[in-house]
Amino acid sequence: MADSRSGLPPFNDDDNTHEGFPNIPVEIVSDEEMALIEAAIAAAVSTARSSTSAIHSPSCSSQSLFNTRSIRSITLLSKRGISSSQPDIEDVGKIAITQKKIKVNESLLQRFIRNRALAVTDITRMEWCEKQMELSLLSGVRKKTKAMEAGIARHAMLEAEVVKKVKVQVKSDEDRWALKLLNFIFGVKQLVLEGLTRELPVMGLVDGVWIAGVIDEIQMLEINASRIAMLIDTKTRVRDTIPAEPQRRNGKLQLMCYKFLLDSLISDGFSIKQFFNFFSLNPHSTLSKEIADSTTSFGFTAKTLDDVIRYYMNCCSMLPPTHNQLLLRYESQKDQSIIVEDEFAYDHGWLNSQLETLLQVWHGQREPECTPQEERWKCRHCQFASDCPTNANLNASQKPK
C-alpha cells in the first residue's frame, strides 16, 4: 500500500493484473519491444569514444520546484554539470573481451569485469536471462537493431533538450573520475536548488562488488513541509501497449538498484581507500587545468582527485532521504506521449534477494540458468537462441527465430 502520509496517490503493485491502469491492450513482446530491453542499456552509452570529455552547460532557463507537484507533469530544467563523453559511470561496467588466456575456474567478474564497476544494467541483463548474458560475454558481440538505434536516438534527443556539451581534454583516469564525481556534485546542487535533476551517477559496494549506474531523473517533492527525493525512470516503447510483467519486473529491479545505491551514499558513503585501491587511482595525481578550474563554479577548489572526492562525500551527506515510492514512465517512441506510469513501492527484501541470486552467477558460485519455461517467448528474439542449451533438442526448423 502507498504511504498515506506521502501525499501521493495510491497505486496498485500487483504484477499479475493491470488494475488501475488505463484500458490499454497488453501484449507479450514483439521483435521491436525485445530490442528495446537492450536499447535501454545502450541509451546511456555515448556513441563518441574520443579522448575528450564534455562539460554540460545550461540550454534552457531553470526555475524553482519547491512545491508539491504532480509527477505526471514534470517541467524540463537545465541540466548543468560536468560529465565525460567517455563511457559514463554506468558504462564502466560494460564488457571488454580480451585475447588473454582465461583460466577455466575464473568467475565472470574476474574474466570480464576485472578492476571495473559492474553496471546496474549488467545486473538487469542478467535478470532478463542469465544464459543470454553469459553467451553475450563469451561472444563479445551484441546485435544493434533498428529499434535499439531508435531508442538511442530518442535518449540523445532528450539529453540535447536539457544539456549543452563543451569538450575538455581528459589526460588521465583520475581526470575521468573527477568529471564523473563533479557531475554528481552539480546534479545534487541542481536537485536541492531547483527541484529536479537528470542523469545522476551513483555507485557503491554490494557484496564486495562495485556497482555503478546513472539515475534517469530525480524530482524533489515537498510533503508536509519536508522535502523528499523521488526517483523516476523513462522507458520508450515502439507500440502503445502496457509492457509485459517480465519487462515491468526488470524495470523495477533497475530503479530499486538506483535507490539502494543512492540511499547508501546518503547514509554511509563508501570507503575512499577501497575506491582508490580497486580502480587503481592515485588520489594525489594533479588534475588537468581545465578540470581544476571548473571546480570553482561548484564553490570549492580542487587540485587532485582526493580533493574532489572529499567534497563529493560531503554532498552525499547533504542529500535528503529518497521516497519509498518509485516511478517507471513508459512513453511512445512515435510521439513521446506517455503510455502509462507505473508507481510501485521499494521492496528492500525483494531487491536483496534478487541481488544475492544474480551476484552468485557473477561470482561463479553457480552456473547461469536459462530463462524459466513460462518466459521462453524471450528466446524467439534472442540472437543466441541457436547456441542455447534450452533449444538443444530442437531441430533447425523448430528453433526460435
UniProtKB/TrEMBL annotation:
Gene3D superfamilies: 3.90.320.10. Residues 1-22 are annotated as: Disordered. It comes from the Eukaryota. Belongs to the EXO5 family. This is Exonuclease V. It comes from Citrullus colocynthis.
